[in-house]
Fold:
Amino acid sequence: MLQITNFDLHLNAKKFLKHLSRQNYSLETITGYGKDLEKFCKFIFTEYGGNILTSEVTKEDIQDYLTFLKRMEFKPNSVARHLSTLKSFYKFLIYEMNFERNAAAGIKHPKNNKMLPSALTKEELDQLFRALEQESPYFEAFFKLMYSTGSRITALRTTLKKNVDLQNKQIYFPKVKYNKELYLPLNNEILPILERHLFDHRNSFSEFLFESSREKNKPISAGLIRLKLTHFRQLAGIERHVHPHMIRHTTATQLTLKKVHQKEIASIMGHSDLRSTATYQHLVVDDLRDSINKL
Structure:
Protein backbone atom coordinates (compact mmCIF):
# COMPACT_ATOMS: atom_id res chain seq x y z
CA MET A 1 0.00 0.00 0.00
CA LEU A 2 1.34 3.40 -1.03
CA GLN A 3 1.58 5.72 1.98
CA ILE A 4 3.74 8.65 0.82
CA THR A 5 2.34 11.94 2.18
CA ASN A 6 2.70 13.78 -1.13
CA PHE A 7 0.94 11.06 -3.13
CA ASP A 8 -2.84 10.93 -3.06
CA LEU A 9 -3.71 9.29 -6.35
CA HIS A 10 -4.48 5.94 -4.72
CA LEU A 11 -6.75 7.65 -2.16
CA ASN A 12 -8.78 9.32 -4.90
CA ALA A 13 -8.95 6.02 -6.75
CA LYS A 14 -10.52 4.47 -3.63
CA LYS A 15 -13.07 7.28 -3.50
CA PHE A 16 -13.92 6.62 -7.14
CA LEU A 17 -14.49 2.92 -6.46
CA LYS A 18 -16.74 3.76 -3.50
CA HIS A 19 -18.67 6.10 -5.79
CA LEU A 20 -19.19 3.26 -8.28
CA SER A 21 -20.44 1.04 -5.47
CA ARG A 22 -22.97 3.69 -4.42
CA GLN A 23 -24.10 3.87 -8.06
CA ASN A 24 -24.79 0.10 -7.92
CA TYR A 25 -22.13 -0.94 -10.41
CA SER A 26 -21.50 -4.67 -10.38
CA LEU A 27 -18.71 -6.13 -8.24
CA GLU A 28 -16.98 -7.42 -11.39
CA THR A 29 -16.98 -3.93 -12.93
CA ILE A 30 -15.67 -2.28 -9.76
CA THR A 31 -12.95 -4.93 -9.41
CA GLY A 32 -11.90 -4.35 -13.02
CA TYR A 33 -11.68 -0.58 -12.52
CA GLY A 34 -9.76 -1.17 -9.32
CA LYS A 35 -7.11 -3.33 -11.00
CA ASP A 36 -6.66 -0.81 -13.81
CA LEU A 37 -6.28 2.10 -11.40
CA GLU A 38 -3.87 0.17 -9.18
CA LYS A 39 -1.57 -0.36 -12.15
CA PHE A 40 -1.82 3.33 -13.10
CA CYS A 41 -1.08 4.43 -9.52
CA LYS A 42 2.02 2.23 -9.37
CA PHE A 43 3.25 3.62 -12.69
CA ILE A 44 2.84 7.27 -11.61
CA PHE A 45 4.30 6.54 -8.18
CA THR A 46 7.39 4.98 -9.76
CA GLU A 47 7.78 7.76 -12.33
CA TYR A 48 7.78 10.51 -9.69
CA GLY A 49 9.10 8.64 -6.67
CA GLY A 50 5.80 9.22 -4.92
CA ASN A 51 6.27 12.98 -5.03
CA ILE A 52 3.21 14.03 -7.06
CA LEU A 53 -0.42 14.88 -6.32
CA THR A 54 -3.42 13.80 -8.38
CA SER A 55 -3.99 17.39 -9.49
CA GLU A 56 -0.45 17.51 -10.87
CA VAL A 57 -0.77 14.47 -13.16
CA THR A 58 -0.76 15.66 -16.78
CA LYS A 59 -2.09 14.49 -20.10
CA GLU A 60 1.49 13.60 -21.04
CA ASP A 61 1.74 11.34 -17.96
CA ILE A 62 -1.31 9.41 -19.11
CA GLN A 63 0.08 9.15 -22.63
CA ASP A 64 3.37 7.85 -21.20
CA TYR A 65 1.38 5.27 -19.25
CA LEU A 66 -0.41 4.08 -22.39
CA THR A 67 2.96 3.81 -24.15
CA PHE A 68 4.24 1.78 -21.19
CA LEU A 69 1.31 -0.63 -21.54
CA LYS A 70 2.07 -1.07 -25.25
CA ARG A 71 5.72 -1.80 -24.46
CA MET A 72 4.54 -4.37 -21.95
CA GLU A 73 2.76 -6.00 -24.93
CA PHE A 74 -0.76 -5.25 -23.76
CA LYS A 75 -3.25 -5.87 -26.55
CA PRO A 76 -4.92 -2.80 -28.15
CA ASN A 77 -8.24 -3.76 -26.53
CA SER A 78 -6.59 -3.80 -23.10
CA VAL A 79 -4.88 -0.44 -23.67
CA ALA A 80 -8.22 1.02 -24.77
CA ARG A 81 -9.89 -0.38 -21.65
CA HIS A 82 -7.26 1.21 -19.38
CA LEU A 83 -7.82 4.55 -21.10
CA SER A 84 -11.60 4.21 -20.66
CA THR A 85 -11.03 3.57 -16.95
CA LEU A 86 -8.92 6.71 -16.65
CA LYS A 87 -11.47 8.79 -18.55
CA SER A 88 -14.20 7.64 -16.15
CA PHE A 89 -11.93 8.29 -13.18
CA TYR A 90 -11.13 11.84 -14.26
CA LYS A 91 -14.77 12.62 -14.98
CA PHE A 92 -15.44 11.60 -11.38
CA LEU A 93 -12.69 13.93 -10.18
CA ILE A 94 -14.18 16.83 -12.14
CA TYR A 95 -17.87 16.35 -11.34
CA GLU A 96 -17.70 14.84 -7.85
CA MET A 97 -14.41 16.09 -6.40
CA ASN A 98 -14.37 19.56 -8.00
CA PHE A 99 -11.01 19.11 -9.73
CA GLU A 100 -10.39 21.89 -12.24
CA ARG A 101 -8.49 19.99 -14.94
CA ASN A 102 -9.27 16.73 -16.76
CA ALA A 103 -5.92 15.20 -17.65
CA ALA A 104 -7.56 12.41 -19.66
CA ALA A 105 -9.60 14.75 -21.87
CA GLY A 106 -8.68 14.81 -25.54
CA ILE A 107 -6.71 11.56 -25.48
CA LYS A 108 -7.98 9.42 -28.32
CA HIS A 109 -8.42 5.69 -28.05
CA PRO A 110 -5.76 3.70 -29.89
CA LYS A 111 -6.73 2.53 -33.35
CA ASN A 112 -7.78 -1.06 -33.23
CA ASN A 113 -8.69 -3.52 -35.92
CA LYS A 114 -11.87 -4.58 -34.21
CA MET A 115 -12.35 -8.32 -34.39
CA LEU A 116 -15.60 -10.18 -33.95
CA PRO A 117 -15.96 -11.25 -30.31
CA SER A 118 -15.13 -14.90 -29.88
CA ALA A 119 -18.19 -17.15 -29.97
CA LEU A 120 -18.95 -20.85 -29.93
CA THR A 121 -19.86 -22.55 -33.17
CA LYS A 122 -23.30 -24.15 -33.35
CA GLU A 123 -21.61 -27.55 -33.12
CA GLU A 124 -19.66 -26.56 -30.00
CA LEU A 125 -22.79 -25.15 -28.43
CA ASP A 126 -24.65 -28.40 -29.06
CA GLN A 127 -21.74 -30.37 -27.56
CA LEU A 128 -21.74 -28.18 -24.46
CA PHE A 129 -25.49 -28.50 -24.00
CA ARG A 130 -25.34 -32.29 -24.34
CA ALA A 131 -22.68 -32.45 -21.62
CA LEU A 132 -24.82 -30.23 -19.37
CA GLU A 133 -27.93 -32.34 -19.97
CA GLN A 134 -26.06 -35.48 -18.95
CA GLU A 135 -24.25 -34.09 -15.91
CA SER A 136 -26.03 -31.18 -14.22
CA PRO A 137 -29.66 -30.00 -14.40
CA TYR A 138 -28.63 -26.96 -12.33
CA PHE A 139 -25.99 -25.74 -14.76
CA GLU A 140 -28.04 -26.85 -17.74
CA ALA A 141 -30.68 -24.36 -16.57
CA PHE A 142 -28.08 -21.66 -15.94
CA PHE A 143 -26.18 -21.83 -19.23
CA LYS A 144 -29.22 -22.47 -21.42
CA LEU A 145 -30.95 -19.47 -19.85
CA MET A 146 -27.77 -17.44 -20.41
CA TYR A 147 -27.81 -18.42 -24.08
CA SER A 148 -31.55 -17.93 -24.66
CA THR A 149 -31.49 -14.44 -23.13
CA GLY A 150 -27.97 -13.32 -24.07
CA SER A 151 -27.45 -12.40 -20.42
CA ARG A 152 -24.33 -11.09 -18.78
CA ILE A 153 -23.05 -13.26 -15.95
CA THR A 154 -23.82 -10.77 -13.15
CA ALA A 155 -27.37 -10.07 -14.27
CA LEU A 156 -28.15 -13.77 -14.54
CA ARG A 157 -26.48 -15.09 -11.39
CA THR A 158 -28.24 -12.45 -9.27
CA THR A 159 -31.68 -12.99 -10.81
CA LEU A 160 -34.42 -13.34 -8.22
CA LYS A 161 -37.01 -16.11 -8.41
CA LYS A 162 -39.79 -13.52 -8.26
CA ASN A 163 -38.52 -11.99 -11.50
CA VAL A 164 -39.12 -15.19 -13.47
CA ASP A 165 -42.71 -15.30 -14.74
CA LEU A 166 -43.31 -18.71 -16.32
CA GLN A 167 -47.01 -18.09 -16.77
CA ASN A 168 -46.43 -15.03 -18.94
CA LYS A 169 -43.19 -16.44 -20.34
CA GLN A 170 -40.95 -13.54 -19.40
CA ILE A 171 -38.00 -12.64 -17.21
CA TYR A 172 -37.03 -9.33 -15.65
CA PHE A 173 -33.47 -8.11 -15.09
CA PRO A 174 -33.50 -5.01 -12.81
CA LYS A 175 -29.88 -4.15 -13.63
CA VAL A 176 -28.17 -5.31 -16.81
CA LYS A 177 -25.58 -2.50 -17.21
CA TYR A 178 -25.37 1.15 -16.18
CA ASN A 179 -28.45 0.52 -14.00
CA LYS A 180 -30.64 -0.24 -17.02
CA GLU A 181 -33.52 -2.67 -16.56
CA LEU A 182 -34.58 -5.24 -19.11
CA TYR A 183 -37.67 -7.36 -19.71
CA LEU A 184 -37.30 -10.32 -22.07
CA PRO A 185 -39.61 -13.07 -23.30
CA LEU A 186 -38.58 -16.61 -22.44
CA ASN A 187 -37.80 -19.02 -25.24
CA ASN A 188 -40.31 -21.90 -25.40
CA GLU A 189 -37.49 -24.43 -25.04
CA ILE A 190 -36.22 -22.93 -21.78
CA LEU A 191 -39.62 -22.94 -20.04
CA PRO A 192 -39.72 -26.65 -19.03
CA ILE A 193 -36.06 -26.47 -17.98
CA LEU A 194 -36.75 -23.51 -15.68
CA GLU A 195 -39.91 -25.15 -14.38
CA ARG A 196 -37.93 -28.25 -13.46
CA HIS A 197 -35.18 -26.14 -11.89
CA LEU A 198 -37.66 -24.26 -9.71
CA PHE A 199 -39.34 -27.54 -8.72
CA ASP A 200 -35.99 -29.13 -7.80
CA HIS A 201 -35.23 -26.14 -5.57
CA ARG A 202 -38.74 -25.61 -4.22
CA ASN A 203 -37.59 -26.21 -0.64
CA SER A 204 -34.84 -23.62 -0.86
CA PHE A 205 -35.38 -20.49 1.21
CA SER A 206 -33.12 -18.46 -1.08
CA GLU A 207 -34.65 -15.60 -3.06
CA PHE A 208 -32.16 -16.19 -5.87
CA LEU A 209 -32.94 -18.30 -8.91
CA PHE A 210 -29.40 -19.70 -8.83
CA GLU A 211 -28.48 -19.77 -5.19
CA SER A 212 -25.09 -20.47 -3.64
CA SER A 213 -24.64 -23.91 -2.13
CA ARG A 214 -22.15 -22.47 0.37
CA GLU A 215 -23.65 -19.20 1.61
CA LYS A 216 -27.18 -18.76 2.88
CA ASN A 217 -29.42 -16.62 0.66
CA LYS A 218 -26.54 -15.60 -1.62
CA PRO A 219 -26.32 -16.06 -5.40
CA ILE A 220 -23.89 -18.48 -6.97
CA SER A 221 -20.44 -16.91 -7.34
CA ALA A 222 -19.00 -15.82 -10.68
CA GLY A 223 -15.85 -17.79 -9.92
CA LEU A 224 -17.74 -21.06 -9.51
CA ILE A 225 -19.65 -20.43 -12.75
CA ARG A 226 -16.39 -19.98 -14.66
CA LEU A 227 -14.87 -23.05 -13.01
CA LYS A 228 -17.89 -25.19 -13.88
CA LEU A 229 -17.97 -23.92 -17.47
CA THR A 230 -14.35 -25.00 -17.89
CA HIS A 231 -15.27 -28.44 -16.52
CA PHE A 232 -18.24 -28.86 -18.86
CA ARG A 233 -16.45 -27.65 -22.00
CA GLN A 234 -13.69 -30.21 -21.27
CA LEU A 235 -16.35 -32.86 -20.77
CA ALA A 236 -17.88 -31.81 -24.10
CA GLY A 237 -14.55 -32.19 -25.88
CA ILE A 238 -14.18 -28.49 -26.66
CA GLU A 239 -10.44 -27.85 -26.71
CA ARG A 240 -10.31 -24.05 -26.66
CA HIS A 241 -10.92 -21.84 -23.65
CA VAL A 242 -14.57 -20.94 -23.08
CA HIS A 243 -15.69 -18.13 -20.76
CA PRO A 244 -19.26 -17.09 -19.84
CA HIS A 245 -19.26 -13.97 -22.01
CA MET A 246 -18.62 -16.19 -25.05
CA ILE A 247 -22.10 -17.61 -24.60
CA ARG A 248 -23.52 -14.09 -24.79
CA HIS A 249 -21.51 -13.49 -27.96
CA THR A 250 -22.82 -16.78 -29.30
CA THR A 251 -26.39 -15.58 -28.77
CA ALA A 252 -25.74 -12.40 -30.77
CA THR A 253 -23.87 -14.35 -33.44
CA GLN A 254 -26.64 -16.91 -33.93
CA LEU A 255 -29.34 -14.23 -34.02
CA THR A 256 -27.34 -12.38 -36.67
CA LEU A 257 -26.87 -15.52 -38.76
CA LYS A 258 -30.61 -16.14 -38.53
CA LYS A 259 -31.08 -12.62 -39.96
CA VAL A 260 -32.82 -11.11 -36.95
CA HIS A 261 -32.94 -7.31 -37.32
CA GLN A 262 -30.15 -5.37 -35.60
CA LYS A 263 -32.58 -3.31 -33.53
CA GLU A 264 -34.22 -6.47 -32.18
CA ILE A 265 -30.83 -7.99 -31.35
CA ALA A 266 -29.88 -4.75 -29.58
CA SER A 267 -33.05 -4.97 -27.49
CA ILE A 268 -32.38 -8.59 -26.55
CA MET A 269 -28.73 -7.92 -25.70
CA GLY A 270 -29.52 -4.72 -23.78
CA HIS A 271 -27.36 -2.60 -26.10
CA SER A 272 -28.18 1.10 -25.91
CA ASP A 273 -25.86 1.80 -28.84
CA LEU A 274 -26.43 -0.01 -32.14
CA ARG A 275 -22.69 0.12 -32.79
CA SER A 276 -22.27 -2.67 -30.24
CA THR A 277 -24.65 -4.90 -32.20
CA ALA A 278 -23.14 -3.85 -35.53
CA THR A 279 -19.98 -5.72 -34.52
CA TYR A 280 -21.69 -8.93 -35.61
CA GLN A 281 -23.16 -7.60 -38.84
CA HIS A 282 -20.29 -8.63 -41.12
CA LEU A 283 -21.27 -12.25 -40.49
CA VAL A 284 -24.01 -11.88 -43.10
CA VAL A 285 -22.03 -9.76 -45.55
CA ASP A 286 -22.01 -12.55 -48.15
CA ASP A 287 -25.79 -12.54 -48.15
CA LEU A 288 -25.71 -8.91 -49.25
CA ARG A 289 -23.48 -9.46 -52.27
CA ASP A 290 -26.31 -10.10 -54.73
CA SER A 291 -27.96 -6.85 -53.73
CA ILE A 292 -24.71 -4.87 -53.93
CA ASN A 293 -23.91 -6.33 -57.34
CA LYS A 294 -27.16 -4.90 -58.69
CA LEU A 295 -25.74 -1.37 -58.37
Notes: The radius of gyration is 22 Å. Strands lie at 164-165, 170-173, 182-185.
